[in-house]
Amino acid sequence: MLRVGLIQMRTPAEQSAALAQAEPLVREAAAHGARLIATPEGTNILQRDKPRLFAAMTPAERDPCVAGLSALAAELGVWILIGSALVRRDDGQCANRAILVRPDGRVAATYDKLHMFDVDLPTGEHIRESASYTPGDRAVVAEAAGATLGLSICYDLRFPKLYNALAHAGAEVLAIPAAFTRPTGAAHWEVLMRARAIETGSFVIAPAQGGTHEDGRATWGRSIVVAPWGEVVALADHDEPCALVADLDLAQVPKARDAIPALANERAFSGPAGARQASLSAAE
After folding, report:
1. How far is residue 202's CA from residue 157's CA, in Å, rounded to a whole number?
2. Which of 4, 109, 111, 247 is the most exposed place for a label (fewest CB within 10 A)?
3. Where are the alpha helices (DSSP H) in 15-82?
4. What is the pLDDT of residue 278?
5. Considering Cα of 187, then 191, then 193, then 199, what sign does the dihedral take?
6. 160 pLDDT tier (thresholds 50, 70, 90)
7. Rounded Cα distance, 58 and 53, in Å
8. pLDDT tens digits along 257-276
9. Helix (H), strand (E) counts: the chain
10. Residues carrying an active site annotation
């Protein structure tokens, strides 16, 4: 049995303030026995003013929030998945990066968000994530607290092929830290989380941003844990900062995959004429 903690935040526009918000919630989850604690997308900073954001971003190893959470992992002896930190890459570009920290404070794995959220919302809001960040180019699985974890971030949720690839690579738990907008959260948040769990026979853990932030954005909250059969194991039914704790019985993963062997039954096929992608491979 793996006890996980999901940290729901309302990240401010400065890294030290973000750490000050996250730290007591991480301590609360650890005090309740969580061995793997996950924070949301944009844990370290949320700032819609692009010049201010770019001026504040640093390489991950110099970011005060990332450094503070890494030290906290070592102090508490827990795994911490920084769901994402907005950081500078080695080439000077920016990344939306998940960082998995070991109980000794060292980085076990990183993942740069693959899919950029470039949308025009019904509210009239225009979001162009690709104007700020360089997308990643690889899927990542990592061992953490006795489980195989598949890493993803927010908008990745809408691309099921990624989660099939993570499950085929052995992921038992799919991490989907997020900062969902309120319109898309109200419409799609829970149903998509449950769909990804059911399709892959995996647990889903989704720590979220929630509420009206210092920079004016509004996020959905409702951090959620979903079991491989699709049932909601734990839910924060609000958008306030909190620590949500749940137990994952990893034995449910092979049971669900044996009951509905969708991963095993996948077949390669040719796409229809004119399809953007000529063929899909069940092995991907």
Report:
1. 14
2. 247
3. 15-31, 50-56, 64-76
4. 44
5. negative
6. very high
7. 10
8. 999 999 999 998 888 977 66
9. 7, 18
10. 41, 113, 154
